[in-house]
Amino acid sequence: MKKLINNPENVVVEELQGIAAAHPDLVKVHFDPNYIVRADAPVKGKVALVSGGGSGHEPMHGGFVGMGMLDAAAPGAVFTSPTPDQMLEATKAVNGGAGVLHIVKNYTGDVMNFEMAAELARGEGIEVESVVTNDDVAVKDSLYTAGRRGVGITVILEKIAGAAAEAKHSLAEVKAIAEKVNGQGRSMGMALTSCTVPHAGKPTFELGEDEMEIGIGIHGEPGRTRMKIAPAHDIVEMLATAVVDDLPYKSGDEVLAFVNGMGGTPLIELYIVYNELNNFLKGRGIKIARNLIGSYITSLEMAGCSITLLKLDDQLTKLWDAPVKTPGLRWGA
Amino acid sequence: MKKLINNPENVVVEELQGIAAAHPDLVKVHFDPNYIVRADAPVKGKVALVSGGGSGHEPMHGGFVGMGMLDAAAPGAVFTSPTPDQMLEATKAVNGGAGVLHIVKNYTGDVMNFEMAAELARGEGIEVESVVTNDDVAVKDSLYTAGRRGVGITVILEKIAGAAAEAKHSLAEVKAIAEKVNGQGRSMGMALTSCTVPHAGKPTFELGEDEMEIGIGIHGEPGRTRMKIAPAHDIVEMLATAVVDDLPYKSGDEVLAFVNGMGGTPLIELYIVYNELNNFLKGRGIKIARNLIGSYITSLEMAGCSITLLKLDDQLTKLWDAPVKTPGLRWGA
To answer: What is the number of H-type helices and E-type strands within chain B?
Structure first.
């Protein structure tokens, strides 16, 4: 295992120490239980957004804490759900009196623990609602999930719902916008290589030198099919066809296209993927009106990519364009 | 070779097509000869900054074209200098009448070709000055270089000189600021894995399963030493000691610390490296006043990192903080 780490057991804590040292203007990091809140939390009268999940997907979620996006993130151990305690303390720390929205990726542990945290927070008089993302069209059920997995749309949802909360929309309104984003978003990913969980010390799965996995999950869960590596054109066609046909997106639609790197894939390849995706969508009469290209929801050092499409309307486009100021995503501020 | 590409021969052109499709609001891409200019080029009365070099280091340089940073970038083939023709056409395309500054990394081919392009541009009546970056403390001469290699400081210099040009400083002033940044900046990098140049089809060098290369160049050129992999703490100590002792940075200094990923290293590891660097510098009495953490000057999919320090003063800090709006670096706009 080749990683820039010290002790595999301390990876998350040392990462959080790094985030705390790097971004004191944007976030505050609380240890034991571990959670990250925006530096000016709680923001009075604003709906607070709390997300979280296993570590190893950076910059998601901790890197998305800040103005215009999340109020707090609870990072679990690598690929392991955070505890209800972490989520509860994060929820209490950012509650500004206008309610809290939990943004939960659809994995059994995350859903269960966020539900428990929401119950506990309600018991302390905090209004809590939840939205669960489940945008991955690859598989219906999987290793850690009943139903579809929550993947790339989570990043987009956190940005758009964050802008809605910043604009002082009510909890019900922010929740409705978040649900619209999840409902109009679809994703699928693929891997060229496995990743290695630090405390496991060996690759999560084995892929031959000439193989790839289509429909991979963000923890290395199996996808739809394992096959010989193929040109970017063919890979994008497989992913994008599955994504586009699922909603379905149709000719005349305007979309936000998110080409995501899995952690070990360089930007030069992501632009080649974007080029293929743009050509594919043109062929379907679908226009990319906004885009995001980079490694934002990762699987440690896995090589590969995922494609997420969100069908846009004026409301969503305006919220996407609004200023955001976080360690991982920033513009207009 | 596992890459998200089509034909290895078309990697750069397809990447540029992707950039053109993704960012028409920020940049325009010209093909044959290949160069990228900011969408509103030429900007009248502003010093224009032109950089370039081999592809494979994305987002550098093409991703840094836009308001507050570069006016143009000339991308060569992967790890190959662009031609004087590309640089000349880029220079002419962005000349706004206030002169053009060429930002050149110290590699023999880049230096020679930029010199030729500058001569040709002068022949057409354009005032051209050059600054050469040579911040890599690892080795004095190397495979492609007489003297030190230009690495991480190039990213920082392009941002700071770009802000100075945006503020309508004169060509002489922008050049002086750029030279100050290079003079006060030092870097060193390391690799956990090799990278594979697409048209070569096999790793540039071989590293054992338990080995790393300290002082690596951004094209996989050999560094100072090959050794057994070590904890992040020890790696940072080796890199940072070489960097700090070279200038020398001294107690009381304020620095910009840039922790860069080589392309295949995930953000979670870069934050662990940043944490170690922050602790190391504290021990030396050096304060990190600004930072940049991410993969900005890469070596295709190489796993590894580099550390760059820039000694700050009020002028440089203010220019660093100024708004920038490029595909690869953006804030305040």
So the answer is: 8, 14
